[in-house]
Amino acid sequence: MSTLPPCPKCQSPYTYEDGELLICPECAHEWSQQTAAGGDETEYKDANGNILADGDTVSIIKDLKVKGASQPLKVGTKVKNIRLVEGDHNIDCKIDGFGPMKLKSEFVKKI
């Protein structure tokens, strides 16, 4: 039986696994197993300064022109289940009716 680390936020020993994430049932804090193993994880923030996490839902805060597309992404477009990645465009997502995209975190806000 493997021992899971305590919650880094509230130190609760009752953490559990959910896919690739570790979750604390007491304070609802979620973190990746790489972070728990001492991996270096960068914090990504939205336009309002809120910290983003994998699986969050965000909305676009300004019209974004997309190369090769006939129409821009409009303000208020909801993007569900984001995935954070390294690089200049640090959000990897799939937008309904548009397809797979990479976005910069500075052009979204957490919902």
From TrEMBL:
Gene3D superfamilies per the UniProt record, alphabetical: 2.20.25.10, SH3 Domains
Domain Protein YjdM N-terminal positions: 3-32
Domain Protein YjdM C-terminal: 45-110
InterPro entries: YjdM (IPR004624), YjdM_C (IPR013988), YjdM_N (IPR013987)
Database matches in Pfam families: YjdM, Zn_Ribbon_YjdM
Family per similarity comment: Belongs to the YjdM family.
Name of this chain's protein: Alkylphosphonate utilization protein
Taxonomic source organism: Thalassospira xianhensis MCCC 1A02616
